[in-house]
Amino acid sequence: MVxxxxxxxxxxxxxxQNPLILKALKVRKKVKPxxxxxxxxxxxxxxxxxxxxxIFAEEVREDCRLCGMxxxxxxxxxxxxxxxxxTQVSFCSFTCTVKYMKMHEVEVKQxxxxxxxxxxxxxxxxxxxxxxxxxxxxxxxxxxxxxxxxKTVESFQKLHGGKVMTFDEVLALH
Length: 174
Description:
Helix content: 40-55%
Strand content: 15-25%
Structural class: alpha+beta
Strand order of the largest sheet: 2-1-3-4
Largest sheet: 4 strands, antiparallel
Order of helices and strands: HHHHEEHEEEEHEH
Number of domains: 2
Number of strands: 7
Shape: elongated
Radius of gyration: 26 Å
Distance between the termini: 59 Å
Protein backbone atom coordinates (compact mmCIF):
# COMPACT_ATOMS: atom_id res chain seq x y z
CA MET A 1 0.00 0.00 0.00
CA VAL A 2 2.71 2.48 1.02
CA UNK A 3 4.77 1.51 -2.05
CA UNK A 4 1.78 2.13 -4.33
CA UNK A 5 1.16 5.56 -2.83
CA UNK A 6 4.87 6.36 -3.02
CA UNK A 7 4.97 5.35 -6.69
CA UNK A 8 1.91 7.49 -7.49
CA UNK A 9 3.51 10.50 -5.81
CA UNK A 10 6.86 9.72 -7.44
CA UNK A 11 5.30 9.52 -10.91
CA UNK A 12 3.41 12.77 -10.38
CA UNK A 13 6.57 14.58 -9.27
CA UNK A 14 8.48 13.05 -12.22
CA UNK A 15 5.77 14.28 -14.56
CA UNK A 16 6.30 17.79 -13.17
CA GLN A 17 10.04 17.54 -13.93
CA ASN A 18 11.06 17.66 -10.28
CA PRO A 19 14.89 17.89 -10.25
CA LEU A 20 15.24 15.53 -7.26
CA ILE A 21 13.10 12.90 -8.99
CA LEU A 22 14.99 13.23 -12.27
CA LYS A 23 18.24 12.66 -10.37
CA ALA A 24 16.73 9.62 -8.62
CA LEU A 25 15.72 8.14 -11.97
CA LYS A 26 19.36 8.08 -13.03
CA VAL A 27 20.43 6.49 -9.72
CA ARG A 28 17.70 3.85 -9.56
CA LYS A 29 18.84 2.08 -12.73
CA LYS A 30 22.11 1.11 -10.98
CA VAL A 31 20.77 -0.34 -7.69
CA LYS A 32 19.02 -3.51 -6.46
CA PRO A 33 15.18 -3.64 -6.47
CA UNK A 34 14.74 -3.22 -2.69
CA UNK A 35 17.14 -0.32 -2.64
CA UNK A 36 15.29 1.19 -5.61
CA UNK A 37 12.09 1.27 -3.61
CA UNK A 38 13.85 2.76 -0.61
CA UNK A 39 15.59 5.37 -2.78
CA UNK A 40 12.33 6.29 -4.52
CA UNK A 41 10.54 6.54 -1.17
CA UNK A 42 13.23 8.72 0.42
CA UNK A 43 13.53 11.04 -2.57
CA UNK A 44 9.74 11.34 -2.78
CA UNK A 45 9.47 12.21 0.90
CA UNK A 46 12.32 14.71 0.61
CA UNK A 47 10.58 16.31 -2.37
CA UNK A 48 7.31 16.52 -0.49
CA UNK A 49 8.99 18.12 2.50
CA UNK A 50 10.67 20.64 0.22
CA UNK A 51 7.73 21.40 -2.09
CA UNK A 52 4.77 20.90 0.23
CA UNK A 53 5.79 21.95 3.76
CA UNK A 54 2.17 22.26 4.89
CA ILE A 55 1.76 18.48 4.87
CA PHE A 56 4.42 17.89 7.52
CA ALA A 57 4.46 21.11 9.53
CA GLU A 58 1.37 22.80 10.86
CA GLU A 59 1.09 26.36 9.59
CA VAL A 60 0.95 28.84 12.44
CA ARG A 61 -1.72 31.47 11.98
CA GLU A 62 -2.27 34.28 14.42
CA ASP A 63 -5.69 34.05 16.04
CA CYS A 64 -7.93 36.27 18.12
CA ARG A 65 -7.06 35.80 21.78
CA LEU A 66 -10.73 35.80 22.77
CA CYS A 67 -12.72 33.97 20.09
CA GLY A 68 -9.99 32.14 18.16
CA MET A 69 -10.84 33.48 14.69
CA UNK A 70 -7.84 33.88 12.39
CA UNK A 71 -6.58 37.45 12.30
CA UNK A 72 -5.54 37.26 8.65
CA UNK A 73 -9.22 36.93 7.74
CA UNK A 74 -10.11 40.07 9.70
CA UNK A 75 -7.20 42.37 8.87
CA UNK A 76 -9.57 45.31 8.29
CA UNK A 77 -11.19 45.13 11.76
CA UNK A 78 -8.32 43.82 13.88
CA UNK A 79 -7.02 45.42 17.07
CA UNK A 80 -3.51 45.00 18.49
CA UNK A 81 -3.04 45.45 22.21
CA UNK A 82 0.28 45.77 24.02
CA UNK A 83 0.05 45.18 27.76
CA UNK A 84 2.20 46.99 30.31
CA UNK A 85 4.51 43.96 30.62
CA UNK A 86 5.12 44.00 26.85
CA THR A 87 2.80 41.11 25.96
CA GLN A 88 1.21 41.65 22.55
CA VAL A 89 -2.28 40.35 21.90
CA SER A 90 -4.34 40.48 18.71
CA PHE A 91 -8.11 40.54 18.30
CA CYS A 92 -10.44 40.18 15.33
CA SER A 93 -12.71 43.05 16.33
CA PHE A 94 -13.53 45.89 18.69
CA THR A 95 -15.98 43.65 20.54
CA CYS A 96 -13.40 40.95 21.32
CA THR A 97 -10.87 43.60 22.37
CA VAL A 98 -13.24 45.22 24.88
CA LYS A 99 -14.43 41.88 26.27
CA TYR A 100 -10.84 40.76 26.80
CA MET A 101 -9.88 44.05 28.47
CA LYS A 102 -12.84 43.79 30.86
CA MET A 103 -12.36 40.07 31.62
CA HIS A 104 -8.64 40.31 32.30
CA GLU A 105 -8.44 43.87 33.65
CA VAL A 106 -5.21 44.45 31.72
CA GLU A 107 -3.08 47.55 31.99
CA VAL A 108 -2.88 48.80 28.41
CA LYS A 109 0.41 50.22 27.22
CA GLN A 110 -0.71 50.68 23.61
CA UNK A 111 -3.82 49.84 21.60
CA UNK A 112 -4.00 50.04 17.83
CA UNK A 113 -6.80 49.43 15.36
CA UNK A 114 -6.74 48.68 11.65
CA UNK A 115 -8.00 51.26 9.19
CA UNK A 116 -10.99 49.56 7.56
CA UNK A 117 -9.94 50.38 4.00
CA UNK A 118 -6.14 50.03 4.14
CA UNK A 119 -5.71 47.60 7.10
CA UNK A 120 -2.90 49.85 8.39
CA UNK A 121 -2.67 49.98 12.19
CA UNK A 122 -3.26 53.36 13.86
CA UNK A 123 -3.54 54.34 17.51
CA UNK A 124 -7.15 54.08 18.75
CA UNK A 125 -7.02 57.66 20.09
CA UNK A 126 -6.23 58.91 16.56
CA UNK A 127 -8.83 56.72 14.85
CA UNK A 128 -12.44 57.55 13.99
CA UNK A 129 -14.99 54.78 14.52
CA UNK A 130 -18.09 54.28 12.42
CA UNK A 131 -20.93 52.43 14.13
CA UNK A 132 -24.02 50.80 12.61
CA UNK A 133 -23.07 51.23 8.96
CA UNK A 134 -24.03 48.61 6.38
CA UNK A 135 -20.54 47.07 6.58
CA UNK A 136 -20.66 43.45 7.77
CA UNK A 137 -20.38 43.22 11.57
CA UNK A 138 -17.62 41.17 13.22
CA UNK A 139 -18.51 39.55 16.57
CA UNK A 140 -21.36 42.00 17.19
CA UNK A 141 -24.89 42.71 15.97
CA UNK A 142 -23.89 45.94 14.22
CA UNK A 143 -20.68 46.99 12.53
CA UNK A 144 -17.94 48.81 14.45
CA UNK A 145 -15.18 49.83 12.05
CA UNK A 146 -12.33 52.33 12.30
CA UNK A 147 -10.66 54.78 9.94
CA UNK A 148 -7.37 56.65 10.16
CA UNK A 149 -8.75 60.01 9.02
CA UNK A 150 -11.93 61.99 9.56
CA LYS A 151 -12.20 62.72 5.82
CA THR A 152 -12.18 59.00 4.98
CA VAL A 153 -14.75 58.07 7.61
CA GLU A 154 -17.08 60.86 6.47
CA SER A 155 -16.90 59.84 2.81
CA PHE A 156 -17.52 56.19 3.79
CA GLN A 157 -20.42 57.28 6.01
CA LYS A 158 -22.11 59.10 3.08
CA LEU A 159 -22.21 55.83 1.12
CA HIS A 160 -22.88 53.35 3.94
CA GLY A 161 -24.55 55.25 6.78
CA GLY A 162 -23.71 54.99 10.46
CA LYS A 163 -22.52 57.25 13.27
CA VAL A 164 -18.99 58.64 13.60
CA MET A 165 -17.51 58.39 17.10
CA THR A 166 -14.19 58.36 18.92
CA PHE A 167 -12.76 55.30 20.66
CA ASP A 168 -13.73 56.59 24.10
CA GLU A 169 -17.33 57.25 22.97
CA VAL A 170 -17.64 53.72 21.55
CA LEU A 171 -16.02 52.25 24.66
CA ALA A 172 -18.60 54.04 26.84
CA LEU A 173 -21.37 52.24 24.92
CA HIS A 174 -19.91 48.82 25.63
